[in-house]
Amino acid sequence: GKAYSMAEQTLKQVLDQMNRAVASIEQALDARAEQDGNYAEAEEEVQRLNSDRSRLAQELDNSESRSERLTSANKEVSRRLVTAMETIRAVLDR
Fold it and tell me: What gap in Å lies between CA 39 and CA 33, rounded to an integer?
């Protein structure tokens, strides 16, 4: 539980940082574009950042759904243990 939420927290922080970075780069590009039209290299960098960002967002979604699956698996195991213990108790009580 804890490891996943920490990983999710870290990913969220990284995504936030990337969002801010992309925003500031885009602002800088807009300012540059007014001065000169030559910013193809920077444009490629923004595209790279955007693809990294969407990859990270995907990983975050995956880690959250994995965490949900683990939670429901834990509940299922707990439920089975309770059932098994009740069955054993019933047998012992005979």
Answer: 7
| R_g over Cα of the chain | 25
CB 56 within 8 A of CB 11: yes
Burial (CB < 10 A; 0-12, 13-18, 19+), residue 85, is exposed
Name the packing angle between helices 40-93 and 2-35 (round to 10°): 170
3 state DSSP class of 36: coil
Q: What is the pLDDT of residue 46?
A: 78
This model's pTM is above 0.70: no
pLDDT digit string, tens, across residues 21-41? 778 777 777 777 666 655 677
Residues with Cβ < 8 Å from 49, sequence gap 6 or more? 18, 21, 22, 25
Task: Check residue 94 and report its DSSP letter.
Answer: -
Task: Compute the distance between CA of residue 5 and CA of residue 9 in angstroms, rounded to an integer.
Answer: 6
